[in-house]
């Protein structure tokens, strides 16, 4: 029995390969030259892509796959996929929404604690033997009495809000649409930034949210304000963030994502009031396994009966029954 043919256009991590190897006939180019050869020789055969998320899937690639019907993306954020163009061509796009919500929310709260209480800096104080010279200085900020605004109130935003409430932090939110939640809603992000002193970014990336957190938003948070970003680096104007952290207009920032990963600006690395993680929000073995299994389940469902489990919002017009 022949296995269903699936193109894996970019290098895939072990958890993804473990979930799909042996279940599908995988075309796995190791470089751009091999990918070009596959697209030239077999492009018309390929109906399904399993996208690990490493490289962009745009119009140029779509044009070389005239019979493509499904892009199964193995991440939650899918800004590397031109979903509107794919849907326009009748291609269903899925992601693994819901599989990493709790892990990313945990990371957001851990990053907040690290940033406000300078925990990573305090650890370095100890590791470098400086405790013998004196205690670590009292931190400027505390988490007590804080107010949080969450930018983006999807599943991850809601999981963050639940955790913040358990810490005694009052939470409000800004999103494109008000949700049926017992939380204050701000239709204008600028107003929310002015009224809170923690802003947690949990909104999808892409063109519609690029630099949504700009210099004005950062100034509105104020010198006691804290920015936490566990979403996409593109949502925050990185140069404006560096400038406001450097001159004290913004108090501190905790970042897990950056505009040009893995390249982090030296100016950001040099800032004492920035806590920086290397995009580890969902980076645990159990969560990555769960993400990979959901991506594989989307593929299996498609080949079984032409349905998918988690279409991205743009693709629901193609999957509505």
TrEMBL record:
D-isomer specific 2-hydroxyacid dehydrogenase catalytic domain ranges (all copies): 34-312
Keywords (A to Z) from UniProt: NAD, Oxidoreductase
Keyword NAD: yes
This protein's record includes keyword rRNA processing: no
InterPro entries tied to this protein: D-isomer_2-hydroxyacid_DH, D-isomer_2_OHA_DH_cat_dom, D-isomer_DH_NAD-bd, NAD(P)-bd_dom_sf
Domain (D-isomer specific 2-hydroxyacid dehydrogenase NAD-binding): residue spans on this chain: 109-281
Family the UniProt entry places it in: Belongs to the D-isomer specific 2-hydroxyacid dehydrogenase family.
Protein's UniProt name: 2-hydroxyacid dehydrogenase
Organism whose genome encodes this protein: Kocuria aegyptia
């Amino acid at each position: 029995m022949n296995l269903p043919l699936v193109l894996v256009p970019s290098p895939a991590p072990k958890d993804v390969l473990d979930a799909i190897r042996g279940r599908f006939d995988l075309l796995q180019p190791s470089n751009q030259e091999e990918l070009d050869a596959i697209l030239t020789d077999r492009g018309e055969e390929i109906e399904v892509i399993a996208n690990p998320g490493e490289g962009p899937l745009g119009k140029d690639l779509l044009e070389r796959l005239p019979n493509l019907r499904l892009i199964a993306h193995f991440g939650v954020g899918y800004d590397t996929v031109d979903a509107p163009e794919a849907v326009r061509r009748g291609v269903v796009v899925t992601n693994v929404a819901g599989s990493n919500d709790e892990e990313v929310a945990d990371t957001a709260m851990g990053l907040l604690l690290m940033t406000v209480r300078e925990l990573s800096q305090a650890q370095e104080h100890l590791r470098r033997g400086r405790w013998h010279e004196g205690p670590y200085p009292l931190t400027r900020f505390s988490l007590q009495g804080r107010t949080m605004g969450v930018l983006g109130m999807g599943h991850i935003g809601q999981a963050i809000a639940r955790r913040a409430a358990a810490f005694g932090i009052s939470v409000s939110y800004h999103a494109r649409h008000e949700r049926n939640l017992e939380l204050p809603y701000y239709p204008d992000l600028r107003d929310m930034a002015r009224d809170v002193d923690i802003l947690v970014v949990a909104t999808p990336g892409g063109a519609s949210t690029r630099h949504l957190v700009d210099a004005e938003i950062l100034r509105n948070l104020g010198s006691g304000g804290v920015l936490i970003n566990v979403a996409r680096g593109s949502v925050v104007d990185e140069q404006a963030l560096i400038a406001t952290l450097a001159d004290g207009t913004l108090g501190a920032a905790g970042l897990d994502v950056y505009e040009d990963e893995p390249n982090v600006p030296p100016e950001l690395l040099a800032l004492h009031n920035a806590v920086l993680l290397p995009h580890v929000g969902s980076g645990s073995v159990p969560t990555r396994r769960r993400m990979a299994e959901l991506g594989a389940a989307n593929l299996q469902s498609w080949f079984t009966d032409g349905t998918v489990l988690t279409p991205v919002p743009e693709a629901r017009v193609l999957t509505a029954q």
